[in-house]
């Protein structure tokens, strides 16, 4: 009888250990590759920029679903990153602007000077009370790793020596078992070692940052290959400073931007190559995405990073899962950052948290080919100035083919039919008055619902 109890105890203990580590059958690995400032046109598979070389990203698109109407939650980085982690809009999080490396007050003084409106209030960190996707996955047996750019950890990083403003705001406090490279920096001190990054030990002199982060991602995969894992590889590429190895720059006749994109593509290739080598492709969801519109021109879209025109918010998105998502699919459905949270929890068979207000919709009806779920409108709220950028300091809504932008300072409205005019050249608000009123009412109702912070008159001028 004693032997029976011992055996039963051993079985129960073994089952508990398996449950603690997660189940491969019900919990796929999740690899999120988040590029920085990579524009809609900055990938080879779309064919918008001759000379761009992204064979690994292109192959990922071929093996999964590529989205042509994917959006970032904001036209700048920090808000999108916070939104992705929480499933909430930047407006709901009060984190609607990039967290300024120059320091909050210096930033506000600079950008409010001479303006009709002063920027709306925003915070300089991801609230520690928010529940992140990493925390939920971690609690359900996933190994979780963050590698790369965090930029949610306090203002003033440009004045620091190592990018660390407050250790309590780093990724390991938000559900990640390990953190390599994530700090308050919005851009690297240098793309070449020494990095001056308190969470990234320096490599050999001259080591290239994007190469290093790709190598770290591979090491994470190898360490956790026998249990479900969540890898967030958030590259600093292609954010300034424009730096790349001389040999790669020479291939593009001095075009450092294209050279940096090639190095990004190589990092993607390292990750996918290791998953293939370890025979993990059937068990791994891979997402490739960008945090905002491109730093440079984004044909055929209008404007770039910082604008609520399409060039500032429409981004590349690929989702691949071998033998689960059919290959060579293209979706034209409008989707955005808050949709990842419910999508990934559904894939991992984890219930949505009851607290808080999740704003996204699961993408599985699209990924499975069902497309039976009506898509809700997409919203943006960006009450911030951008020098030389059209339609910053604005809010927007997209519903179906229609998009409305409201300029906060001029109070002008811009209505576009994106199906017919993706370049946003024809403002239809004067002729499509009913559509304009309908979208404006929905936009304002959403702003009230999430308690969006609004810009105020600038009495300092």
Automatic annotation (TrEMBL):
Signal peptide: none
Highest taxon of source: Bacteria
Residue ranges occupied by any Sulfatase N-terminal domain in the UniProt entry: 28-350
Alphabetically ordered keywords of this record: Calcium, Hydrolase, Metal-binding, Signal
Similarity-based family: Belongs to the sulfatase family.
InterPro entries: Alkaline_phosphatase_core_sf (IPR017850), Sulfatase (IPR050738), Sulfatase_CS (IPR024607), Sulfatase_N (IPR000917)
Cofactor: Ca(2+)
Keyword Hydrolase belongs to the record: yes
The name this protein goes by in its record: Arylsulfatase A-like enzyme
Single GO MF annotation: metal ion binding
């Amino acid at each position: 009888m004693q032997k029976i109890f011992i055996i039963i105890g051993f079985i129960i203990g073994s089952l508990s250990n398996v449950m603690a580590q997660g189940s491969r059958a019900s919990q796929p690995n999740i690899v999120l590759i988040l590029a920085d400032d990579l524009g809609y046109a900055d990938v080879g598979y779309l064919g918008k920029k001759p000379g761009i070389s992204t064979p690994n990203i292109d192959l990922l698109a071929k093996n999964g679903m590529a989205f042509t109407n994917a959006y970032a939650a904001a036209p700048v980085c920090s808000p999108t990153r916070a939104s992705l982690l929480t499933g909430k809009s930047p407006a709901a999080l009060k984190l609607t602007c990039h967290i300024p490396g120059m320091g909050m007050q210096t930033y506000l003084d600079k950008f409010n000077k001479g303006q009709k409106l002063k920027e709306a209030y925003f915070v300089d960190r991801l609230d520690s009370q928010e529940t992140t996707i990493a925390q939920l996955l971690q609690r359900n047996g996933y190994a979780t790793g963050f590698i790369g750019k965090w930029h949610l950890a306090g203002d003033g990083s440009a004045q620091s020596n190592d990018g660390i403003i407050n250790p309590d705001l780093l990724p390991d406090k938000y559900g990640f078992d390990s953190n390599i490279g994530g700090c308050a920096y919005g851009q690297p001190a240098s793309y070449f070692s020494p990095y001056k990054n308190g969470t990234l030990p320096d490599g050999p002199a001259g080591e290239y940052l994007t190469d290093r982060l790709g190598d770290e991602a591979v090491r994470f995969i190898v360490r956790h290959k026998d249990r479900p894992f969540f890898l967030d590889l958030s590259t600093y590429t292609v954010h300034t400073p424009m730096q790349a190895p001389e040999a790669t720059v020479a291939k593009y006749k001095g075009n450092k931007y294209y050279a940096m994109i090639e190095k990004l593509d190589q990092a993607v290739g390292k990750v996918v190559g290791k998953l293939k080598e370890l025979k993990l492709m059937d068990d791994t969801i891979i997402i490739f995405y960008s945090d905002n519109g491109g730093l440079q021109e984004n044909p055929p879209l209008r404007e770039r990073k910082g604008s609520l025109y399409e060039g500032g918010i429409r981004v590349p998105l690929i989702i691949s899962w071998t033998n689960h998502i059919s290959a060579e699919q293209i979706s034209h459905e409008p989707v955005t950052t808050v949709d990842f949270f419910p999508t990934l929890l559904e894939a991992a068979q984890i219930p949505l948290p009851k607290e808080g207000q999740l704003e996204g919709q699961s993408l599985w009806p699209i990924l499975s080919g069902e497309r039976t779920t009506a898509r809700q409108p997409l919203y943006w709220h960006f009450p911030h100035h951008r020098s030389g950028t059209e339609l910053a300091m604005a809010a927007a809504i997209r519903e179906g083919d229609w998009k409305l932008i409201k300029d906060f300072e001029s109070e002008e409205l811009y209505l576009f039919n994106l199906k017919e005019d993706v370049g946003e050249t024809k403002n239809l608000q004067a002729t499509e008055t009913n559509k304009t009123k309908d979208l404006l009412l929905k936009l304002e109702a959403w702003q009230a619902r999430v308690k969006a912070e609004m810009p105020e008159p600038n009495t300092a001028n």
